[in-house]
Amino acid sequence: MGYVRPRIGPLAVTVAVALAVVPAGALAAEAAPGSTPKAPAVKATRPEAKPPLLVQAEAPPFSEGIYPCSACHAGMPKDGTRRELAFHDEQQAVFDHGSDQRWCLDCHDLQNRDVLRLANGAPVPFTESYRLCGQCHGDKYRDWRVGVHGKRVGHWNGEKTYFLCVNCHNPHSPRFKGVQEIVSGGKKTVAPTLTYLKPEPRPKRPEEQRR
Predict the structure, then answer these.
(1) Where along the chain do its domains lie?
(2) Pairing of the two strands 160-162 and 152-154
(3) 181/168 Cα distance (integer angstroms)
(4) Using one digit for the tens of pLDDT, what is the confidence trace for 58-72?
(5) pLDDT tens-place string over residues 21-41
(6) In terms of DSSP bridges, do strands 152-154 and 123-124 run parallel, antiparallel, or are they unpaired?
(7) Cα(first)–Cα(last) distance of the chain, in Å?
(8) Starting from the edge strand earliest in sequence, which strands make up the sheet with 152-154, in order?
(9) 55: Cβ–Cβ under 8 A, 6 or more apart, which residues?
(10) Side-chain-facing half-sphere of 60: CA atoms under 13 Å
(11) Are 131 and 124 in contact (CB under 8 A)?
(12) How far is residue 5 from each of residues 8, 17, 64, 141, measured CA to CA in Å?
């Protein structure tokens, strides 16, 4: 009787193909006795840094007896006509802030004298006067918001206190005053108020220090 070749059924072919596509490492891991499957690697992430806490400095105090403005203006008629005021002589005497283009009620609210007003008529409290300043001085306002212009005190990675525009500038006469006004390049400006320091001598070279 001759040799008869065994027939390979469809099931045997399927098992052989499945074993061929399974990675050898996976089979070894399953076959290894007592082995513990490894957890997938987790990428370490740095915790998000919290934004620094910004604290607004208090606005400078008003002249004594001048605030709230409604204490006097509540009983007065609301007149928006530009004119020379019978009161507030101190402010009118020093007013130098685009006086040809604006006057009091361009910044102070006619309906509520205890607040300021934006160009669109929206009321603004005195504690947020920087919003009013930023309408015309947009570049300075942008620099102030990021800490380039103005003054901030506090911690580099913690609480910071920022000063308002009016902490350094008089809103009725915002330009800094120098020792004396001078004319430079055909323009009136102020002489610097800083005293220049005398330069120190340069440090000695190593060969100059040898004896």
Answers:
(1) 54-59+87-188
(2) antiparallel
(3) 20
(4) 776 777 778 888 888
(5) 545 544 444 545 555 666 666
(6) unpaired
(7) 117
(8) 54-56, 160-162, 152-154
(9) 154, 159, 160, 161, 162
(10) 10
(11) yes
(12) 9, 21, 116, 93
